[in-house]
Amino acid sequence: MKPTTCLSLLALGAALGSTAVYAAEPIEPIKPVQEVNLAQVELGKKLYFDPRLSKSGFISCNSCHNLMMGGTDNLQTSIGHNWQQGPINSPTVLNSSLNVAQFWDGRAADLKEQAAGPIANPGEMAFTHTLAINVLQSIPEYVNEFKLVFGSDEITIDDVTQAIAEFEKTLVTPNSPFDQWLLGDEDALTDQEKAGYALFKDSGCVACHNGQAVGGSSFQKMGLVEPYVTENGAEGLAGITGKDADRMMFKVPTLRNVELTYPYFHDGAAKTLTDAVDIMGRLQLGREFSEEENMQIVAFLKTLTGDQPSFVMPQLPPSTDTTPAPTPFE
């Protein structure tokens, strides 16, 4: 995230009189990150991009949550170790710190817990936490940096996930055209985009898609008015609670940067925003949007694209003769 972005957004907010401008709206401007441990962020950035935390030495966090592609991989379901097809669409990592929980089914309480999952998942990075730590412990530059950051010669998975989570906290996207409009710039949106937002509110979309992240704060049933038909086997919250009432209950996705995070829904079945708006209107609201209405809502949704994270790519420390070799074809 560019420092100038933070300063300009904050200055604009101050000039327009704090939150009074958008207090009546169900959506709030994205706030720039307020408090992070910069040393952990820098270490976490390296770990986020380091494929050596996977069995193949090929897959990193960025493989499925590509920061050049809206924090996703733009695939219907992600590709894991040995080209395994993932079971579910990869949600964006951007603004994920604003989520009530992580993963579509909410099985991880926070970013730190989420970061531990893919490393040891046989269908994703296919490693073990022990082997990942062995790799890091074999690289002197990592050992020194972990000691500087966490004050110990011993590298732990707890420290690894803490650093990754701290980096992910910085991946917020403020200063979208819609945020600028919320903060008082009437010219930030076109008439079509404003009409789309009015329709978005009047139709009831804001009941689930609200707050800073425009979603991510609740779990809702996919297919309220009509059943959602899919070949995807994900059960949603029911897979965690075991309750039949929680079947097809998924975390409401953020709509921030949604034009970048196609395809849509937990099964990635909606290839375009036009498709997604049509399906959500019929299945969740019992409403068939006209072609013009659909275009207006899509135009509004595209105004939610904010400043994308911007930083110097990390230089990863080299492996040593004792670093365990990757096994990409096993």
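the 2nd protein, sequnce then structure:
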Amino acid sequence: MTFTQVVLAPWVLVACGLVSLAMLGLVLRLRPWQALLGDSGLQHRLMAATLCVALFWQLRAQAVDWLSLHLMFTALLTLIFKAPLALLVNVLVNIAMLAVGRTEWPLLGVNVLMSGVVPALVMVIVWRLVDRYLPDNVPIFIFVCGFLGSALSTLAGGLTMVGLAWVGASDLQVWYVTQEYALFLPLLMPSEAFITGMLLSLLVVYHPHWVATFNSHRYIDTK
């Protein structure tokens, strides 16, 4: 979910913009584009993923003008490309939404934080826990990362939206409407989890080398 009109206090917009900018700076310091330079297949997959996510973001439920509900796909992107490239894709998609007039420019930092930074961070934590503490089992990887991880990422993004509205809504009505929208989170979580888990399952079976967080030697070859 993302904001489409400015209904937050200026200090919230600035704070979120600074946090998102700091995370983007951290990502750029990791130089994620180096992995793209010598791998044309990865370049094509990344461009295709960016285009597909941008198109899917056009499918949204919007009962009020300033907030929209839609699938984020950040968890799936994080599993496939890892967090740095996933965040770059999220930034590009958010810029595309601005370019076509879906959202307003002051909201770029807020929406990147809510739909990109927070879900990706949650997904990285889940993946790290699975990688370190759970058995090397393909179904465990798919279900815990693909299904549970993406559901938790969606929940975290939604709760971030609620928190931002709580601390910085420009009017009380915005806070009340946000509370009502939060009730839709249990509907968004299974949808995101199902699509992420299904696509991750297909990729792990047919193209495991496309999933950067999946070690096929560890999960398959050693069994």
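DSSP finds ten helices and three strands in the chain. Residues 2-221 form a domain with the Arp2/3 complex 21 kDa subunit ARPC3 fold (CATH 1.10.1760.20).
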